[in-house]
# Entry
Amino acid sequence: MDLTQLGWKPVLEAFFAEFRESGMVPARVVREDRGYYRIRDVEGEWLAEVTGKFRHEATRRADYPRVGDWVATERSEGDHTAQIHAVLPRFSAFSRKEAGKSDEEQVVAANIETVFLVSALDREYNLRRIERYLTLAWESGARPVVILNKRDLCSDVARFVEDVAAAAPGVEIHAVSARIGEGIDELESYLIAGNTVVFLGSSGVGKSTLINRLLGTERQRTGEIREDDGKGRHTTTHRELIVLSNGAMVIDTPGLREIQLWIDDEGLQQAFEDVEEVARLCRFRDCLHEAEPGCAVREAVEAGKLDAARVNNYKKQRDEMARLARKQTLAGKMQEKSGGKQMGRLRKQVKKIKRNH
# Structure
């Protein structure tokens, strides 16, 4: 297998030049698990970890390798292990705010061409959640595609497809059944040799079952849906890049319990392009679409031209991003202030040492 078969792009050569001069080799991260990584290069797979220097210089968790990343490595032939010295720039990345109280970015998958947003046509179906996924998918730099799985359990597939189409302008939508293989052939056009597709969605929507169907074998563990609440069992516990027989690559991911947005609002603008277009007609440029006079968005809702629930979800996501941006700005100022105090104390210590000498 050569690098292009793993998704290597010519533009990466310029970034890797300095590492190649140092005798390092490029590899792609195919799995991560508790601080250790599985990487693949032209000679096979290696168990790897980052160097101590890497840990020291990393300033945030998003700096660390993630599945799909290209890394500069130094191999140890004796025990088939490797050390990761650097992560090459990502041309795309699906990110979210880390779950819980942390305000850090969590990179779910890197260097992807397509994002399969998988939902299920059963009790798990939630249109507002699909909209949140789409915001993050548009931010990633990759192409979002909505996959509505379990069509064999739905009596009115066309209605659900129509609803999603209204909430996902410009996005391809496919209703499939991974269990019986219905509609799977529609996905083949996205599975191009050398390209990478990441599967994202809640637990139980059938991501691993879809991947098994594409592989033609039961490689990924799957679980049944609980009868009492319709929730899926978390059978996928780590992220992993898998190469299909046709040379395309897919990334399986654990179900996302929380879909917390990240700061960049470009994804929001693309996911809600219809709302943004109407908002340009508002009397005030900074209109919040609440009670301001001349609000075109509110007028469109009242006239039935925009869906009220969709507009409310838009405003909720907009406000969520604004709060996160303010917290990040405050945290940055505090860190800068703390750093300033630390430098001040250091200068005093240096002066004291000079006086004593």
Residues 60 and 104 are 8 Å apart (CA to CA).
